[in-house]
Amino acid sequence: MDITLEEMKEKSKAGAGLMKFVQALIGYCDVFKEVKPKREKVPNCTLSVLPTRWRTKTPQTSLSIV
Fold first, then answer.
1. Where are the alpha helices (DSSP H) in the chain?
2. pLDDT tens track for 44-53
3. Residue of 9 and 42 predicted with greater confidence
4. Which domain holds residue 48?
5. Cβ 27 vs Cβ 42: under 8 Å
6. Which of 20, 22, 44, 62 is deepest in the core (most CB within 10 A)?
7. CA torsion 34→38→39→40, rounded to 10°?
8. Cβ distance 11 to 18 under 8 Å?
């Protein structure tokens, strides 16, 4: 069905509201499909970077004392 939001408003205000909601929900699902795999990778990346941060903070701490 190829109908725009404006065309739907002319036919039914309630239908236009429902159409706007469904379009927003579809947009949310598209974003979620892209973000979910990235979100699942974060714990692994954090664990691999954590020891590196500890190694780099030690020289900086000792240099700030000097």
1. 5-11, 13-65
2. 776 666 666 5
3. 9
4. 5-65
5. no
6. 20
7. 110
8. no
